[in-house]
Amino acid sequence: MRHLPPFPALRAFEAAARLGSFAAAGDELHQTPSAISHQVRALEAWFERPLFVRSARRVTLTADGTRLLGELTTAFDQIEDVCTALRPSEARSSLSVHCAPSFASKWLGPRLSRFMQAHPAITIRLTSSAEPVDLKSHADIDIDIAYGAPPVRAGVVVESLGSEPILLLATPRLFNGSLPIRPRDLAQFTLIDSKLNPVQWADWFKLNGLKLPSTARPSFDRGSLAVAAAADGLGIALETSRFAEVELARGELIAIDGPAFRRIERATHFLCYRMTNDERAPVVVFKEWLSLELAKITSGGARAPY
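User: That's the sequence. What structure does it adopt?
Assistant: Structure tokens below.
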């Protein structure tokens, strides 16, 4: 059996010691200052030593009281942490979102502060990996934003996040002031492969009536890396505009376009969630917020200048 003093007395002491006042401790614990003082005296009797030095206007800790407060602070913090983890607060809720790394870093991440400001009661837990997750096997994930073709699963809703322009992206420095004006002009430049992009160079050249050049192409397994390589002057990347919003807005990248170029637009990101979560409040709120963010781009409110 544990040999411990009464827990209410420890709690009263911790509050009074932390706040430096019996009255403040009483306010926090919804007790009178007299009740706090009585519990502290009972604790001092249990220890058979004083824990406070009392004066007319304030109380200060003795050396023993300081030692006890340090240990209790650590213990109470640990108790609070485990209780919070086991019993989430009714005032807050969490939402676990998984998505591809490039979408997380280039599009969703920069916007999450707006979501948090608009919905402070929802805590976002964001994870990422290149492969979409199977929501039927990962009960801990509420939403998956899949890149490419999402896996088809019974009981999982899949919604497109809209058509995305797949752009020819390059730094202006690459052209010395003379931009390509015809699709065939691209043959003289290094083309950058973004390996996971559902739209590849072969698709673009076919659409534009040309044969894909047989020259070697550097490749990257993340769209964000392909965009960064283009911004660094390695060559021309073929990637979604969502991964290059900042670089386009800053002028670090431009989109090679014009009357002679045929652009590919395709849905490459998909919102996935379990049907059983369809009415769960955080999921509904996140879906509505995501729709508003996408609408800003469609209407031109947050569209990069390409």
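The longest strand covers residues 163-170.
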